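Protocol step 4 of 5: obtain the predicted structure for the target chain.
Materials: sequence only (see below). No template structures provided, no constraints applied. The aim of this step is simply to have a reference model before the mutagenesis design in step 5. Sequence pasted as it appears in the construct record:
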Amino acid sequence: MIVINFDEYNINRKNILQDLPTSVFVYPTDTIYGIGCNALDEKLVQKIRQIKKTAQPFSIIVPSKEWIYENCVVTEEAEEWIRKLPGPYTLVLRLKNIKAVAKNVHNVKDNNITIGVRMPNHWFLALSYTLKMPIVTTSANIPGQDFMTSLEDLDLSIRNHVDYVFYDGPKKGVPSTIIHLEGEKVEVTPRHELRLIHKKIQFPLNEITLTRKK
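Step 4 output (structure tokens):
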């Protein structure tokens, strides 16, 4: 396991970007720490399922809003929520391109394939954008246990099976709000009141140029 902070990533950016499509990694978002991988690689997705011991569908971080329009069914209601991105939301949409992610990522319900998409308001989004690669996003904890808040409390069963940890310091956020846009009615499922300060970032992201908070 290699621990990388923001500055170390910038220094070693080229080599890290080469490794990520074949790696499993823990990373920060605008809410909590997640664990992820290349969402196109079925074997890596299965590895995360084994690490977390879960069969629940995963959401993904997407490279751009264009990716959403190309691969998902976007209604007028969904367009309104897409305008709010990047942000602390997971938009659940019907997937129209089944090859957009590995088949063990999404959820199949009533013959419809649905997928949760994220664009976190965080510098880590730039990695997905640069690689043009969707990234599995699920909390970096074992189901039923506490969320990772610092490197020290990262569960050993996760720590021992990941290639990289992108560490951003202690993070005590809450999971993103889920917006169900796959049905006839829009359903909003906040998981906790968000008390986070979000710094709006420019998009698209060609390079990471944000200044870390002191």
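Step 4 remarks: The first helix runs from residue 6 to 11. Residues 2-189 form a domain with the DHBP synthase fold (CATH 3.90.870.10).
Proceed to step 5.
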